[in-house]
Structures
1.
Amino acid sequence: MQIGCHGSVWTGQFDTAGVQLAIAKTAEAGFDLIEIPLMDPDQADLSAVRRALASSGLAVTASLGLSEHTDVSSDDPVVVAAGEHLLNRCLEALSEIGGTHLVGVIYSAMRKYMTPATPLNRKHSIEAIRRLADRAAELGIRLGVEVVNRYESNLLNTSRQAVAYVEETGTDNLIVHLDTYHMNIEEPDMFTPVLTAGSRLGYVHIGESHRGYLGSGTVDFDSFFRALATVQYDGPIVFESFSSAIVHPDLSNMLGIWRNLWTDGEDLGRHANSFIRNQLATVSSIQMH
Ligand code: MN
């Protein structure tokens, strides 16, 4: 099982120097994997990133949220095509650096919608994601749809919805991506959604209720990790945290990161790495399966 860290713990800039810094810091904090936000796949020199990854020994994944201009659930086929084009470029960039998973809000825009998703929105999204999952399979990359809260998408807010969506695509290369921060807002508890996703669960984000230090908010991590053990989850587990101390202009504003939850990313990262490993050690000691 790989324990990872989202790049936004270290920097808001994902040009070559920013990614290199994030890789070095992630390895230093004891993680196995780095997740790079890939809002712009042409921002960094991919061969330099590949070399930095090789010398760090880290595995790599990437994530993004689509914008209103690249929303694959849009009514407008031109916008859908733009989204599909961007995601294909992300897949190629990730393949160049040896990445294993492309995840996030890739099935709609990552924003507050003012109306519910229509059947046409859902159809456009599923058709595009089905094609992308096939392309990802050719590159040896798994594609994951991240279940997020109602203020960040109108399409997938619960594990149950994500399972239905994935089943509708009919592809095995599409996985459910759960995030404890979002689950804490939308789900009935932290245990059953993991069982609902079952073997379709392929990617996990660990975030606290206010996106700060793990254990300092209201997320019931004990139940969540017991559920992971129950379904014998063995995919990546990635720590995600945001503070206004580290600002990526698009991402921070979209996610509503207005407060300073922490200033010392190194301390936060080391703490999260040991928090996650301790939770896994605890559940494995009681042999849930
Ligand atoms: Mn997340």
Note: Residues 213 and 268 are 6 Å apart (CA to CA).
2.
Amino acid sequence: MDLIYSDEHRLQDGAAELIDGRLQPPVECPMRADAIREALLTAGIGTLREPSEYGLGPVLRVHDADYVEFLSRAWELWSASGRTWHALPLNWVGRGMSPVRPESIDGLLGYYSFDAGTPITPGTWRAARAAANVALTGATAILDGAEGAFALCRPPGHHAAADCYGGYCFLNNAAIAAQGLRVGAMDRVAVLDVDYHHGNGTQSIFYARADVLFVSIHADPAHEFPYFSGYARETGAEAGEGCTLNLPLAPGTSWEGGYRAALEAALERLRGFAPDGLVVSLGVDTFEGDPISRFRLQAQDYPKLGRMIRGLGVPTLFVMEGGYALEALGANVAAVLGGFLEG
Ligand code: FKS
Ligand code: ZN
């Protein structure tokens, strides 16, 4: 299968994220993509391909124009304000305040974000655009008849909403790809998000739509980031009522201790929807050795995940999201794709 990859991911290389009350080296770092690429090539999973350039059209079908304009100019505005270091937001709108769009860059950073873990650097916009092109190239492979493809996106995307960044995400690669499949003549598209963290951005983008089903298995937001999205009671709105399914699991969940059953429930819902195409937001931060997460999936569980997804018999684009155990990250991704190919 096609493995789509761009070296431009390296342009997102933050100096620090605010985590656990301290500035620390970002876990979302360039070595992640290098580790995944190497492991996939070693495992003989597929052939490496460069992305094509799709321009901003497909990005603007998912993201608001003012947000895209902000992202494209944020570094320029930040550095014009005299700062030579990376930009992190420091304030957000609180209850009882005015949710207006401020004018200064410091205000805009807070207006368009939801966390302080996502640095904007000189290369952020180019890296984020490249990741969207990687996802769109994968969507094109699926539209051209491939049964599977892998988009090695970095920075990740599933936390980015139509007008909001955070959780290491700027442009929602999976949503841009899913919308690309819709525009490319698939009537019904599903997104299955198996990252440890809830894909709040993807959910919100498709929340009121009946043509894109969003199903997610993730750590219970009562205990885990992003805290304010991903509850089971969130089931969609308006035309999209019933087209969102959240399956939150307790921290500590293992494959047999709840994960497999949740995946079966997710697959059953997906079967009922009968999509023409599937986008999998693939995070392997569900791994027991992940440094920021608390599920207990083991290496041998990842081929089963891939095989069960293949069992749907739907053309599938895997879009890379999280996973931070650098020594096991590549092998776990290769295991999912290997299981899919065998399945
Ligand atoms: C841990 C704090 C963690 C941010 C977590 C972001 C997770 C990002 C991700 C993505 F796929 F987007 F990369 N704060 N105490 O893994 O969901
Ligand atoms: Zn995650």
Note: The mean pLDDT is 98.
3.
Amino acid sequence: MERIILIIKNVRNERLLKSELESRYTVITAKERDGLEQSFDMGIVDGPMLDEFHRRILLKRHAQEPLFLPFLLVTTRKDIGYATRHLWKIVDELIFSPIERIELQARIEILLRARRYSIQIKNRLEEIETFSHAIGHDLKGPLRAIKTFSSYIRDDCINHIPERCRDYLSRILANSERMEQMQDAIFTFMNTGCRGIVKEKVSLDNLINSTLEELNREIEKTGALININCSVELITDRTLLRLILRNLIENSLTYVDKDTSPEIDISCHKSEDYAIIEVSDNGIGIPEDKREEIFKPFVRLHSIEKYPGTGLGLSIVKKCAELLEGFVGVRPNREKGSTFWLRLPVR
Ligand code: ADP
């Protein structure tokens, strides 16, 4: 049976609610020994207790995320006039007193249904996490063994194997390399955001420069010219933003015509509420009908032989942008290539 906690000041109202709900739910009260520390599926709170309990309710809700822990406010029409918009961070629904029995039932059932769905989603997520763990860790060992022994054959026995088999061997090596990259990308995608969001002051200039240092080898190899115009500070999650920038810059270095050196412009501007970061390139561009699709996992517009990649970079970018409560998109660059834009809240 689902558990409902009553956080009700007036003893008589508390008793009435309890006797009304007891036939269908397990009903506990916040006045019992452990208060909100007890486990429950939803809370019913009245105005006076909301004042006293709002911090504890917020903490309890946060602690349960991504599970949805609903709270229903019982109030009078007169008192709701004082509600602020913060109220909807603490409660999800309200019911006016004097309470109509059928209305109470309906509100509780709707909220509990949402709670049940969130439990189902959480269970599915846990299954997916188990699989991603298997992909990230348990398959790594066998794959490494395939790579290692194939390279032993290449290094030690190459002269003893026929030409045709040498080709097979180099394919095994290339594919195991590719599989390792896929594994790493899937692992990054699945784990992005798992440690929660940690916001701090971030200088974009510094972050971009340190990201470019990580990509130094690719930049030198391609002879890329990179312009940065980003003297902006944000309160954001450094790790997620770095992941976004790294993926966008890596793509700008990759998707250029053969024999063309990449030219990349990274610019930022900031208003009171949000910042826009743009990464523009002189690359091959993206057809109009594919500009949304490329942000979905495993969508690639080119063969692996033509351009290397896993098809996960932009879905990682999108996931990070959503975790930062931002948006990402792409439009054609003025003359040639693409401009990827990112809109983020400044704090
Ligand atoms: P990948 O690992 O294949 O680069 P992404 O998710 O980062 O995966 O990108 C998906 C597809 O979008 C790429 O395969 C490529 O076809 C296209 N794409 C991404 N960035 C660019 C770009 N800057 N210019 C042109 N095409 C791009």
Note: The first helix runs from residue 11 to 21.
4.
Amino acid sequence: MKSRGIIIAGNWKMNHLPAETKAFIDRFKKLSTDQKQIQDAGSRLKSLLFPPMLSLPDASDNARGSTLQIGAQNAWGEASGAFTGEISATMLRDIQIQWVLVGHSERRHVFGESNALILKRVQGLLGQGMKVMLCIGETEPERKAGKTEAVIDRQLSESLASPWADSALKNGQLSLAYEPVWAIGTGLTATPAQAEEAQKYCRKWIWDHYGMDCASQVSILYGGSVKPDNLAELLSCPNIDGALIGGASLKVDDFFKMVLIGSEALN
Ligand code: PGA
């Protein structure tokens, strides 16, 4: 029994034009119609897509009234101002978008975002009522050097410490995605045992710093080469509350399959 429910999230990264986004969502809606399993799951199953910024208005319009929720791949914490290249919570809310992914490994490693910068995003976005999914995870050399827990410690202590973290962890406004960098886009999925061990550690960290209620409420997703073939086994782990899926979320039939697998894993 998954007491926290399950979140199946697709991170499209820099893929899919607005027209492709619309077609994807139309097909997803068609596939979900009359799917008793999905209807029965109700709010315990969340299916979520993070399309590129240019597709957000179309995605939001098209998903309205369906079970699909839409989020942005990044956003800045101020309401407006001189922040070239950024979008704000106000802009996202204007198109009925509530979710934002923050601190994805590509933001950290390709674009050099630091924990300090990520903390500013987390603080500002939570303060403005957005739902934040904070991504963390170690690189391959860090894992090989036995530093996985130390990296999780540092990323969480340096990027989560906001005055809103406590209530946001309790009420589902803040979730975590553990994504080992070596597993992202490589086909090298963490074994369920590796993912569970790291995610159990994340939950323990939350317990130690924010208490039992926050630790038992927060959803922790796994990400890194998740696909229809390995999702069920990952979701069977007690500390894995969903998946953040890159490559395998780009094809609607595969994404839908994974949402169905999520619904099966709920009980
Ligand atoms: P992947 O990406 O599923 O293609 O490994 C996951 C992610 O980057 O969120």
Note: The chain has a mean pLDDT of 96.
